Structure formats: C-alpha cells, structure tokens
Structure prediction request, 292 residues.
Amino acid sequence: MARLLSVDRWVLPLLNLGSLLLNIVPSKVMYALADIGGTITYWGWPAKRRAALENYRVALGEAVTAAFLDRTTRGSFRTYARMILDVLRMRRMPFERLRQLIRLEGAEHLTAAMERGKGIVAVLPHAGNWEPASNIIAFLPYRFLAVVDEGVVSRAVAGSRQRAGLSVVEQSKAARPTIRALRQNAVVILVADLVKDFRAARVQLFGRETYLPAGPAYLAVRTGAAVVPVIAIRQADNTSVITVEPPLYPDPKANPEEEAHRISQAIADYFQRVIQGHPEQWYPYRRLWTEA
Prediction:
C-alpha cells in the first residue's frame, strides 16, 4: 500500500500537468499526435494486435478482405489513443467547454427507468468514447456510482469523474455499495464486456459462444433495477453523441437464473449492434472467443 501511495504522489501530478498541456494544445495537433501514437502501438504491441485481428475476423465475418481487416484494426488503435488523450484532457477541462463536446440522446429512457424507484444499471462496452459518457452526469439530476478497476490509472480517471460529481468504487469492493446505491434509486455504471473476477454469463456474440460478466443481470434480478445500455460514439469532429437505449426490465415472476440469462443475452445483442455499427470504435484487445 505504501508503494502505491508513493506511485500516486508522482503519477497524479504528472497526469495533472499533462491535462493542463492538452487543454492548451490545439485539438487538431492533439489528435494528430494520438493517431501517430495509436499507429506505433498497433505495430509495437503484437500480442494486442493479434488479439484484435482475431476478434475482428469473427465480428466482421470471414468474407472481409485482409486489407479491410487491417485498416479497421489500425483505426481502432488510433481511436483508442484519442480516447486516452480525452481522458487526460477532461481532468482539467471546464464544464462549459465539456458541455459543447457532448450531446445526449434518449434521456427520456433514463427518466422512465428512474420513475420506477429501483435504480438503473447502466452498461457500456469497451467501445466509443466513454469518458464523456461518464462526465455527462455533471448535467443530470441523478446520483451516479461507477465501478472501476484497481490501479493508479483507474484512480487518476476516478479523480476526473469525482470532479463531475460521480462517486466511484473499486471493483473488488463494489458488491455492497452497488446494491445500496440501486436501493437508493441511483445509477450504477458498469463497463460490462470483459469477464474478470465475477460470475460469467454464457452468451452468443456474432454467432459464437462466449462469456460476459453476469453482474449487471444479477444486480437487476436481485434489486429490480432497470438495465440501460449506453454508448458514447465519437463523431467526425471529435465531439461525442451519448445514446441511451430503452431499458431492460427484469420480470419478478420469472425464474431468476433464466431471467439473468435473458438480460445477459440482451446486453450481448446490444454490444453486437454497437460493434457492427462502429467497428473502428471497438477496443477488442483480449481474445473474446478463444479465452472463453
């Protein structure tokens, strides 16, 4: 723990300095540097490149050409690099400027789900530009709780979100706080497309069997909360459109295991639609099928 605190003491000030610089540098220059960095990462990190290529080969279909597959994968690395710089920049970005970079669609779905009084489990894939999606809460009248990974980088990102009014909890300590938040009619935010330490749900994704985290579905079944898919898609001008999908409501009369599976598969279907619609904004750097 002492070592982690020591790391925080020098990493967080560097991140703050980087954030200040990125808010001074013109956006065109910043994103051009991100594209260069993403391309270098694509060639310099062969394990991640191979995993992404294999995942895209399944998602895009066997009929795609090698050139299209390679172009899409390289585009993913560049888009991810842009998202990372956005994460840093938003640590110090004024809210007035942030509001100009995001647009929310489907807010009525949040309102409808909140009126039930049982909270919302908001699920996002590793796709798009999710940092603006987490900062949108600065402009919404609800209580939010985000579950984050452990580590200094996650704590640095958490600092940006807390500035916007978003509470955060590390994944290993999230069970009780998330249930408590849902019972208080809050919104719990989960990036829910990679299985880590929690129960896995077997689903069909792009016609093949794989696994997603079962946590969102089981939280909904246990508490009655609505599951609301959310995605933030980067636009050509580097603004983001945050789209809120219609809620998935658990059936209290259904068998809990069967209902959890139904919801998990619905989440998988949503993730598939997002990936098909915006393949270069998907970040599939772990094999999804061979590791299932």
Q: What stands out?
A: Confidence is low (pLDDT under 50) at residues 1-7. The chain has two domains: 1-93, 102-279.
